[in-house]
Amino acid sequence: MWCCGETSIIGIWGLVLTCETGLYPVEVESDAKVVVGWINDSKHYSSDVGLVIDAIRKLLRYNVSCSIKFVSRKANVVAHTLAKLTLSCEEDYVWLEDFPPCIWRHLLEDAPDCV
């Protein structure tokens, strides 16, 4: 079983991988303050999680149009709702021009001009 920090890392890893799609800029926002700190500091972590952190750092270094920052959960309801959704998914999903219905209300609240 993964702890919440490890789950956040996997979610961030997926978002950072979008940097490789050529869709720029990518700004990853996470409410996992500790995880964002792990990624943004220069320490080496000797674990499976450390390997993922190193890979995320490498992607961020080579994709200057990609960044990661901490935001509070209240300011990031869409991301939190998506993260909860992923915990119940048994398959991988990719939404390029659409989004899951569970975030519609939150999108309207967060960015009414974008939907």
Automatic annotation (TrEMBL):
Q: Which domain of life, per UniProt? A: Eukaryota
Recorded GO terms, molecular function?
Answer: nucleic acid binding; RNA-DNA hybrid ribonuclease activity
Q: Which residues form the RNase H type-1 domain?
A: 12-85
What UniProt keywords are attached to this protein's entry? Signal
Q: Does the keyword Signal apply?
A: yes
Residue span of the signal peptide, if any? Answer: 1-18
Indicate yes or no for the key word Signal. Answer: yes
Instruction: Extract the Pfam families matched here.
Output: RVT_3 (PF13456)
PANTHER family from the entry? Answer: OS05G0353850 PROTEIN, POLYNUCLEOTIDYL TRANSFERASE, RIBONUCLEASE H-LIKE SUPERFAMILY PROTEIN
Name this protein carries in UniProt: RNase H type-1 domain-containing protein
**UniProt source species:** Dipteronia sinensis
Cite the source lineage: Eukaryota, Viridiplantae, Streptophyta, Embryophyta, Tracheophyta
